[in-house]
Specification:
This protein is of the alpha/beta class and 461 residues long. The chain folds into 4 domains: 155 residues, Methylthiotransferase, N-terminal domain (Rossmann fold, 3-Layer(aba) Sandwich); 107 residues, Transcription Regulator spoIIAA (2-Layer Sandwich), CATH 3.30.750.210; 115 residues, Transcription Regulator spoIIAA; 59 residues, Nucleic acid-binding proteins (OB fold (Dihydrolipoamide Acetyltransferase, E2P)). The protein is 36% helix and 21% strand. The strands form 5 sheets. Strands 2-1-3-4-5-6 form a 6-stranded parallel beta sheet, sandwiched between helices. Strands 15-16-17-19-18 form a 5-stranded mixed barrel. α9 runs parallel beside α10 and α13 packs parallel to α14. The longest helix has 23 residues. 41% of the residues are buried. The chain binds 5'-deoxyadenosine and iron/sulfur cluster. Iron/sulfur cluster binds next to α7.
């Protein structure tokens, strides 16, 4: 394929022409797409939107790259490891492309939005036909049309477009749980984080659009709705107000949300969670570090003491209130003593779960310029130490539920035995219990009998 740096859409594009072109290429056969989304739920949602667009023009989906005529890697840029995996994958597609040159290979999402990555793909990965970033979804049909018609490579990493396209309908992977973005982008510029650079500034969806989408999902039988935003607390139209509004929707369902920046988490948010019966009594509150100096260097804009206030406020009203957190280990300049402050903090705050990561240098961020003297290997050992510390204390903390009855959404077959089902409680804790598979997709009350380090065990009551 010849190289073309900028997407240039010729004026004969129309959806009809695109469909006709696909029919010319595939005849009676249904074209198949393999799409893999890496990273966070927001990215998974974008992947579901692309799937929705492809379904509209006659595509079906496959898990087998060999059968696909279109392969899409919807990528994540948060950590280097995710990027390495994508390069590993597209490296492997070189052989496939040689054998089946008509297969279209596409890389999109956060990683593709970075100029140096798009350049690297353009220069070194000629098997890739289409590259587009996080602002170009609206142009997907046009770009696909151009690739199919002209057989040229298309790159589109245009900068921010403030509009939110309400017309892109998701083709959802699950029939039980659905994610609903309420806002896009991030304004916080935590010094380690690439997200503000690849997802642009914050844009909120109108309350009515979110309300209508959630109402439709509930009507369609979805049981769990997760509201998504990098920091839902800065939702322009008021996040507690949105929760209250969504709580008025009738039906058998529950609401979750993520993430919530501690600098903006208020007692009003906690009160709202506690007051709204449909909202899960759980808050994912990324702490990142338990050391004030490191938090300042991270530009997190709160101290450990301020963070503690939110947890203490919630637990004073409801001692079982569940918190989970993200932790970064080995931020540039972090000493072992400072890391130990994070260990101390996780013991104090008793998280039901932590998602912990070794710091990953992201080019273009402020932290990438900071001095970093600790080896990656050493940081890996710190991470292990943190996880062991958490595991040691977690079972006794989870035991607070033994003897209590939790509302669990049965989601799939369990791990404990072939008779067990697996689901999550309102607190987002995994619960396993014996039950008929017909219960998958419905809520059940489960009396907890045992706490283990990865789940609670219980019996349906
Ligand atoms: N290195 C390691 N972890 C990171 N995160 C974000 N950026 C980085 C990075 N450069 C983590 C944070 C965030 C979660 C989604 O990913 O903990 O909350
Ligand atoms: Fe990244 Fe911080 Fe924004 Fe979260 S709040 S997406 S960690 S910059």
């Amino acid at each position: 394929m010849k190289n073309k740096s900028i997407c240039c859409i010729d004026n004969v594009f129309s959806i009809e022409n695109l469909k006709n072109l696909i029919t010319v290429i595939h005849g009676e056969n249904t074209p198949l797409c393999y799409l893999h989304s890496f990273g966070c739920q927001q990215n998974a949602t974008d992947g579901e939107k692309i799937k929705g667009m492809l379904a509209e023009i006659g595509y079906d989906f496959t898990d087998d790259t060999e059968k696909a005529s279109l392969i899409i890697m919807n990528t994540c840029a948060v950590r280097e490891h995710a990027e390495d995996r994508v390069f590993g994958n597209i490296g492997k597609f070189k052989k496939l492309k040689k054998e089946k040159p008509d297969t279209i290979i596409c890389v999109c999402g956060c990683m593709a939005q970075q100029k140096h990555i798009a350049e690297r793909i353009k220069n070194n990965y000629h098997q890739v036909d289409l590259v587009f970033g996080t602002f170009a979804y609206n142009k997907f049909y046009e770009m696909l049309y151009e690739v199919l018609k002209t057989k040229s490579r298309v790159f589109n990493i245009s900068e921010q477009d403030d509009s939110i396209n309400e017309n892109l309908k998701q083709l959802r992977d699950s029939k039980i749980k659905a994610s609903v973005p309420i806002m896009y982008g991030c304004n916080n510029f935590c010094t380690y984080c690439i997200v503000p650079y690849v997802r642009g500034r914050e844009r909120s969806r109108p309350v009515e659009a979110v309300f209508d989408e959630v109402s439709d999902l509930v009507k369609a039988g979805y049981k769990e709705i997760t509201l998504l935003g990098q920091n839902v607390n800065s939702y322009s139209y008021g996040f507690p107000q949105l929760l209250k509004r969504l709580n008025t929707i009738e039906g058998d369902f529950r609401i979750r949300f993520m993430s919530s920046h501690p600098k903006d988490a208020t007692s009003e948010l906690i009160d709202t969670i506690l007051d709204c019966d449909k909202v899960c009594k759980h808050l994912h509150l990324p702490m990142q570090s338990g050391c004030n100096r490191v938090l300042k260097e991270m530009n997190r804009k709160y101290t450990v003491e301020e963070y503690a206030k939110i947890i203490d406020y919630a637990r004073e009203i409801n001692p079982d209130f569940s918190f989970t957190s993200d932790i970064i280990v080995g931020f540039p300049g972090e000493t072992y003593e400072e890391f130990c402050e994070t260990k101390k903090a996780i013991n104090r705050f008793k998280f039901d779960n932590i998602y912990s990561f070794v710091y990953s240098k992201r080019s273009g961020t402020k932290a990438a310029l900071m001095e970093d003297n600790i080896s990656h290997k050493q940081k890996g050992l710190w991470l292990r130490e943190l996880l062991l510390e958490h595991r040691e204390n977690n079972v006794s903390w989870m035991s607070r539920f033994v003897g209590k009855t939790l509302k669990v959404l049965a989601e799939k077959e369990g791990r404990t035995s072939e008779h067990h089902l697996n689901g999550r409680s309102d607190e987002n804790i995994i619960v396993e219990f014996i039950g008929d598979k017909a219960l998958i997709g419905s809520f059940v009350n489960v009396k907890i009998t045992k706490a283990m380090n990865w789940a609670l065990l219980g019996e349906i009551v």
